Amino acid sequence: MTQQDWYLKQCNITQYVLRNANVFKGEIATQISEDIRLIVVAEQKPIQKIYYDILNAIHLTEEQVLFLTPQQLIIPADEIKTVLWFIDITLDESWVNPLTIQTTSLDQLAKAPQQKRQLWQKLCQYENYFHPERT
Fold this sequence. Notes:
The protein has six helices and four strands, in the order ααβαβββααα.
């Protein structure tokens, strides 16, 4: 016990330990702006060429994509009206909805033509979400 702890205890002052300091850093209180057209959820921000090729193919800029780690995704699934792309993340039942895309890691995806074809078909279904001004 430090001297400061001892003094606080003598004064009958309860010390609290902040367990999730990221809340104050703004990492958890994520706001989804109206400019966001796609939310990418992965352990690390994608840097692979295939990721940028996909964004280019669906005509989205990085400013229109919100990257979140699974720990940052605390908004209930039913409140999100944006397409969610989970990369190499196992989903629980609460996240399975019509606006969810789930793929393996991008390195594996780059080597799997059938998975790329399936991803492209899904992305084409969401074109109205990516570019609502075209409808």
